[in-house]
Amino acid sequence: MTPEQARDKIIFALDVHGLADIDRWAAQLAGHVGMFKVGKELFTSCGPEAVKTVQRHGGKVFLDLKYHDIPNTVAKAMVEAARLGVQLANLHALGGEEMMATAAATVRKEFGDERPRLLAVTILTSSTAETLRQVGIERPVEEMVVRLARLAKDSGMDGVVASPLEIESIRAACGPDFLIVTPGVRPSFASLDDQKRVMTPAEAVTAGADYLVIGRPIAKAGDPVAASRMIVDEIAGGCP
Ligand SMILES: O=c1ccn([C@@H]2O[C@H](COP(=O)(O)O)[C@@H](O)[C@H]2O)c(=O)[nH]1
């Protein structure tokens, strides 16, 4: 894999709260990552201006708001996400088939092929079997992830967000064209933080991840540009 291909797989999690932070990170990491993720912290503090600021820097955007509500509300929120011109947007698969199918059909009808790829979050990478048990789900994590990925595919979603540990099973269940986006990525130099189901960048790409979401391992590094270069080199060197 070339360094450019490796770079394009990296989505930097902009877990910050100000527009000035976006300017700083976008300027610093442009050319070192393929996309920027706007999540709950940044969107709650800055709203759509966060997306527009990344776009003004020429950056692509994954809008990670993990919608989970009644079908009509989620479909309308997804339409507004698509209107922002983002590349990826997501909802929570635990919202079920009607919620996902309504959102997917509504966005497709309004935007055709000029739309974001729609992702369903399966089981959060910070969750374990114990987390599931606490909310009454007595099934292994991997079984739940594959079950939700199948449901997402059948509902018209383009892909899922899952841990790299589940890539192989999702590919077997959902095929080669189904997008798999994986947070829970930790290079050997980084700490786990609150992530529980993790792999290294090269392991995740070798397993078949389309995109890796990486935040703190880059943001908290002494030299974030050097950290992103090390990740690109690890992927490019370790993956065919
Ligand atoms: O299952 C999930 C879904 C989303 N995330 C998000 O990804 C980043 C990961 O950041 P790190 O600093 O690399 O841990 C973060 O914004 C999460 O909200 C996830 O981690 N797991």
SSE topology sketch:
Layout: H1 3-8, E1 10-13, H2 19-29, E2 35-38, H3 40-46, H4 48-56, E3 61-67, H5 71-83, E4 88-92, H6 97-111, E5 117-121, H7 129-134, H8 141-154, E6 159-161, H9 167-174, E7 179-182, H10 201-207, E8 211-214, H11 216-219, H12 224-238
The structure holds the ligand O=c1ccn([C@@H]2O[C@H](COP(=O)(O)O)[C@@H](O)[C@H]2O)c(=O)[nH]1.
The ligand O=c1ccn([C@@H]2O[C@H](COP(=O)(O)O)[C@@H](O)[C@H]2O)c(=O)[nH]1 binds next to strand 8 and helix 11.
Describe the structure.
Substrate binds at residues 15, 37, 64-73, 125, 186, 195, 215-216. By secondary structure, the chain is of the alpha/beta class. The protein has a single domain, classed as Alpha-Beta Barrel (TIM Barrel). Helix content is 48%, strand content 15%. The protein contains twelve helices and eight strands. Strands 1-2-3-4-5-6-7-8 form an eight-stranded parallel beta barrel, surrounded by six helices. Strand 1 (10-13), helix 2 (19-29) and strand 2 (35-38) form a beta-alpha-beta unit. It is globular and about 45 Å long. Bound molecules: the ligand O=c1ccn([C@@H]2O[C@H](COP(=O)(O)O)[C@@H](O)[C@H]2O)c(=O)[nH]1. The ligand O=c1ccn([C@@H]2O[C@H](COP(=O)(O)O)[C@@H](O)[C@H]2O)c(=O)[nH]1 binds at residues 13, 15, 39, 121, 124-125, 161, 183-184, 193, 195, 213-217.
